[in-house]
Amino acid sequence: LLAGGHRAVLRSEPPLTAAAMDALVYPLRQGGRSFVGLLHQVGTELAGLSSVGENPLEPLSWLLPEANDLFSVVGAGPRSAANLLFAHGGIHAGRHGQVTGPEGRRGRVALGAASRDLDPSERERWPLLAAVSAERDAIHLRTIAAELDAARDLARTGDLDLVLLRVEPLDILTHAHFAEAVRSGQDDGARLLFEVYRYVDARLGEIEAALDADDVLVVMSDHGIRSAMEHSPRALFVAAGGGVPAGRAPGEPSLRGVSRALADLLGVETPWPDLGVAPFAATLARRPASAEPVAAGAL
């Protein structure tokens, strides 16, 4: 994807999951630009901790300016958008599994199993994952497998224009195993976390193979990581397929611009900020009428 697609290093400020999710789903609700908004974002991040479970500052939300969300805007016309952004603790970005559109209609998408064990071929291909015995890790591996199954199956059906899927156990496993993975500085990569990344990488290949020639696959992170406990403001972004030109966006465009890039890919006009994440997106959507609609997915 990196070699053949369009890549960018996004600036995710503040580097918190809650802030990134909020920027993606509500691109005009810039809560972090006010003191009240910043407090609400901190409270939402706290809600993602299992020991907290809910935003202690939720009453401040009524002071924030409301704005249309990504799914409602995309689904207001002939397009459809599916929200598979799994809740992370108490962080919610709309209703999981909901489909909006066409013409604003609301429905649900069938997701299949919420978790599954690795199958025999996967266990053979990724022996470090097969050897995991601690349930605290195995439970997340089962969830990742099922979530990527859902993404692959939706790609095969081709019924939806936009699917946003978040593989949240990857965040948990990265924090849990990052220190171990980088402790020696350089080794042969025989670490559980690297094996998880290899597994996700291969499953993304399955998803890409299931897409039509005009579809666009977007892979991104909500922020980066510096240490087991410290986030980095630099986030990953890469888009590939459907005529996407190879290259890299200059500088570090804000993660808040991803919503505009997705809407542009689908030919949906919005007032959202164009921050240079994917400058080709609007042009790509204006292809000849004989071309099939662009479908985009974010992970």
Number of helices: 10
Q: Strand share of the residues?
A: 5-15%
Rg measurement, Å = 19 Å
Total number of strands: 11
User: Helix fraction?
Assistant: 25-40%
Q: Alpha-carbon distance between the termini?
A: 13 Å
Low-confidence stretches: 45-53, 55-60
Report the average pLDDT across residues. 84
Task: Give the strand order, joined by hyphens, for the main sheet.
Answer: 4-3-2-5-11-6-9-1-10
Write down the secondary-structure element order: EHHHEEEHHHEHHEEEEEHHE
Descriptive notes:
- The protein is an alpha/beta fold.
- Helices cover 35% and strands 14% of the residues.
- The chain has 10 helices and 11 strands.
- It has a 9-stranded mixed beta sheet with strand order 4-3-2-5-11-6-9-1-10. The chain has a two-stranded antiparallel ribbon with strand order 7-8.
Summarize the structure.
The protein is an alpha/beta fold and 299 residues long. It has helices spanning 17-25, 35-47, 70-74, 120-125, 127-130, 135-157, 169-182, 192-210, 258-265, 281-285, and strands spanning 6-11, 81-85, 98-100, 106-108, 162-166, 216-220, 224-225, 231-232, 234-240, 247-248, 296-298.
